[in-house]
Amino acid sequence: MRVAVRFSRGDAVREMTHAEAIRTWEEALAHTGLPIETGEGHLHRRRFALAAPLPAGYTSDAEWLELHLSEPRPPSEVVAALNQRLPEAVRALEARALFEGEPSLQSQVRFAEYRILTRAGTPVAGLEEAIDAFFARERYPWEENFDGRRKHFDLRDLVDDLWVEKSEAGNALGMRLDAAATGTGRPDSVLTGLGLGDAAHKHRTRLLFSYVPEALRLWRRTGRFQPERQER
């Protein structure tokens, strides 16, 4: 039985790296009492995978994990067992069984959306001007350091959409970035490219899959997500 679990990560663990997140899940899964399958080889690690890394410095209520069980368990039991062992800042929110033959969550991640709350005093006009200037460029040559190597790419190609959100908490920048294995957009790189610098709060709002899990369809159907924005 393969299970998809949606979970959140709060402020207390927002600086957690991907490697630290893996270790947190390994430790929690070792004590849940769930019949988790183990992989082959001498390590016999429990079989699970995070759908996509969450950048350090970000919170989220839209993370997904795929878990392999040797025996069926009700989704509610899976959620309860996980929350008994996970840190308080990491909460399992829902779970559902994946159908036989359904692609892995990792292979189906296409986009990631973020909400970046700007510092107090950042005007909407300034955000909109930065967005317009970004999309006015056909190319945005960029380079970053990945594992000690300099990588050159077009930042413009990794940005699907940008928009401004207004709320009582302040103005926010919305982003939809590529999150596929062939190219992943880093929200902090986009912030720098827009010339916006630091932010008051950074949050991932959802992952979008090319094969949409039923849990996501139901979540959208109940009005959790805003209507799809027109792609630029």
Describe this structure in words.
This protein is of the alpha+beta class and 232 residues long. The protein has two domains: 2-102, Alpha-Beta Plaits, CATH 3.30.70.580; 107-221, Alpha-Beta Plaits. The chain is 24% helix and 35% strand. The chain has six helices and eleven strands. It is globular and about 55 Å long. The chain starts with a strand and ends in an 11-residue tail after the last helix. The model is unreliable at 227-232 (pLDDT under 50).
Report the portion of residues in β strands: 25-35%
Q: Provide the CATH topology of the largest domain.
A: Alpha-Beta Plaits
Q: Any idea how many domains?
A: 2
For the record, give the distance between the C-alpha atoms at the N and C termini, rounded to a whole number. Answer: 39 Å
Order of helices and strands: EHEEHEHEHEEEEEHEH
Largest beta-sheet details: 9 strands, mixed
Which stretches are low in confidence, meaning pLDDT under 50 for 5 or more residues running? Answer: 227-232
Number of helices: 6
Shape: globular
- CATH class wording of the largest domain: Alpha Beta
What integer is the average pLDDT?
88
Number of strands: 11
Rg over alpha carbons: 19 Å
